Structures are given as C-alpha cells and as structure tokens.
Amino acid sequence: MAGRLLALLLFVVALAASLPTLGDTASAHIHTHQHNKADNNERTEDGAFSPRDADHYAEGEHHEEFDHEAILGSVKEAEEFDRLPIQESKRRLGILLTKMDLNNDKYIERNELKAWILRSFSTLSAEESEDRLDDADTNEDGKVTWEEILQDTYGNDPEDLALDDKLIQDDKQTFEAADLNKDGYLDTEEFKAYTHPEETPRMFPLLLKQALADKDTDGDGYINFQEFIGDRAKSKDKEWLLTEKDKFDYEHDKDGDGRLDSDEILSWLVPSNEEIANDEVDHLFVGSDDDHDNRLSFDEILDHHDAFVGSEATDYGDHLQEIDRFNDEL
C-alpha cells in the first residue's frame, strides 16, 4: 500500500510540474491532433474512403479534437487554441462567431453552423494537402512531379516498389487524373485533387473505374454481393458475413436490385461531408443549446467554448482524468 501511495505522490508531483501556471500561455498538450493526415483518404476494409469523422468516437470515447478542427478548419490552429488561456480562447472564438453569423442576429442557426463546418472541412483538406506537398516537393518549386511523389511515398527500394505495385499503379492513375493541364506537374489545387479525390467531383469517374477494376470480376459494370465481399470473406465467420449482407442490402443497394450501379458505388466509396456536418451540428447543439430554442446564442457557445475550440482548461481536464484513472487502478 505504501508503495502505491508513493507512486501516486510522485505522479501528482510530476503532473503539477506539467500544468500551466496563471498567465502562462504554454501548456502540456496531450491531445492527438494529427499532422499530414494521410489517414483521411485511407480506405476502410471494404474499400470505401474513411469518413472524416472516423475518429470522433473510438472505443466508446469521445475525441473532442474533431470538434475543434471542425470549427477552426486547421489542425495547427486547433493545437494553438489548446495552449491559450481561457479568456483569450473565448475572445478569439467571439471573433469567429461574428463570421459564422451570416444574418448578424447574434445567434448561430443550424444552417450557419453547418455552412461553417463544411467550409472548415475544405480548409482542413487544403492544409493537409499543402503539408504533404511541402514534404514531397524536393526542389521547392511549389509543384510536384510523379517522381517526387513516388520517392516521398514509396522510397526507392526496388523490393518495396515491387510489393506495392498495385498501389503505385492506382496512385499513378490518380496523379494523371489530378493533373488537369497535363503538364506533368501538380500545383497546389491539382495536388489537393490527388490527395483528396473523394472530395473532388472531377475525380469520381476515376474512383468508379478503379472500384470496378478491383471488384467487378464478371465485367458487367455492376458489383454484386459476392464481388463486394471478395476475398475478405475467406477469413471471416458467419456473423461477419451476415453483417456485411445487411450493410450491402440496406445501406449500399438503395434500389434493392441486388447489385450496385455507378451511383450506388460512388455513394458507398465517397463519404458524405454533408451528412458528417449534419451529425456534427447535432452533436454541438445537444451539448450547448441550454435553453433548447434550436439556435445557439453567442453566450451559449462561449459558455461551452471548450466543446468548440478548447483552451488550457481542456488540457487541465485531461490531466484530471489521468488522476482519476490512476486512482481507479489503485
């Protein structure tokens, strides 16, 4: 018992040293904002692009980083807000609210919040893409060639290149489709189309073509259930099979004809930012609309600033949770 108490004492001392003092604008940041989010255009197991809010709730826990990025439209700004004193965080949030408030009535309606969140999704993608372009642009000319992308993504080991042959082939097709003026380079906008084809409508024909090449084994231009599950089924049990069949029948096959046509394939592949934004609006309203009038006053949002943008107080709350977990273990 004495050993556990000593361990707890040492933990609290170390924790106290890491907490911000009054007036200190730097705090120990233990959030998980991710730079260079290649995960955003990673595929789920069935081949669809992972939705932007995939990590909003994970293993039963709510991750507020998504909320902060959905309001600020920038991973870097979200990290900066996590280091701000509460009053400064609220001051800056107040400035943002005047920009969100399209009709200048001092309230944020659902449509205003949704429009802002959709704008944030776009700027997040641009930020992610620009960071990746900077990494790949070895000669720093503000644009990238296929060779620069190949080197940055896969390296130059012949064995690695051989192992990733299919991925490289698909990436090369994506590069060529993104290269709008066919000059062999991707500028900032073209590179965004390359890194986020699922958010770029002109890239959808390529996504459809690649999905059919990957799954349409009988070449009829459709994807039936057997083609949908493909080789994945070999290592799965009956419960998994039934779950996938329900998903195919009730989520993807919208007209119920037993196969996915072009529109249904794209609906399955491409996450709907509209739906994600609607869900985020509902989430923020549930936690902030204190008088239940279906609109958010500036005061309501500022009172719940930690849900929207975070501050040093958010980090402090995380530290307290760490203490609670430690006590539970004791």
UniProtKB/TrEMBL annotation:
GO CC annotations? endoplasmic reticulum lumen
* Region feature Disordered, mapped onto this chain: 31-54
Query: Which superkingdom, per the lineage?
Result: Eukaryota
Q: Which residues form the signal peptide?
A: 1-18
Job of this protein? Probable molecular chaperone assisting protein biosynthesis and transport in the endoplasmic reticulum. Required for the proper biosynthesis and transport of pulmonary surfactant-associated protein A/SP-A, pulmonary surfactant-associated protein D/SP-D and the lipid transporter ABCA3. By regulating both the proper expression and the degradation through the endoplasmic reticulum-associated protein degradation pathway of these proteins plays a crucial role in pulmonary surfactant homeostasis. Has an anti-fibrotic activity by negatively regulating the secretion of type I and type III collagens.
- Stretches of Basic and acidic residues bias are at 36-54
**UniProt keyword annotation of Coiled coil present:** no
Instruction: Give one GO term, molecular function aspect.
Output: calcium ion binding
Coiled-coil annotated spans? none
The record's keywords, sorted A to Z, are:
Calcium, Chaperone, Endoplasmic reticulum, Glycoprotein, Metal-binding, Repeat, Signal
Q: Does the keyword Mitochondrion apply?
A: no
Entry protein name: Reticulocalbin-3
